[in-house]
Amino acid sequence: MGIEIDVVVGYPINDEVERVLGLAEAVGEPVTVTFLWEGREEAERAVLVPAATLALWEHWAPTTYPRAGAGNEDRAVEEAPELAHPAEFGAFTLFRRRVGGRTAVAREGVVVAELLDPDEAHWLQEKARNVRQGFMDPKQKAAFEEFLARQASLGEQ
Fold this sequence. Notes:
Layout: E1 3-9, H1 15-27, E2 31-37, E3 44-50, H2 51-60, H3 73-78, E4 87-89, E5 92-96, E6 103-107, E7 110-116, H4 118-133, H5 138-150
Parallel strand pairs: 1-2
Antiparallel strand pairs: 2-3, 3-7, 4-5, 5-6, 6-7
Helix pairs in contact: 2-4
């Protein structure tokens, strides 16, 4: 999916995070990021999806990402929701949601991207693409029906 970047993140502020967030905003497409947070043993993989791209995916996806059975059930038990304190990285502020696991990325008070679980990002992208490919707006549908009406039937050919 898009671009892959590995980032080592220190606490409290690291210029590398600000550069990655700025890059994702500039390219306007999903960026896969691996965070190695200081003090944590496991790396955290996420897909940084620009807000406009996420809005488009969520518009076309017919349902929300299924949470039940979507991941390792033991993981949900061992990870208690973190407090929702914002983390600032230069011009960007990260707001981790306590429900759903997403993290909103804001710059100057405007959400510019969201960090999503890679499986959720892939699922949303696929669902949105499949629905969108089967959709015709009303003008396109009328033009297509008019085109088909002008075609000779199989018996007349």
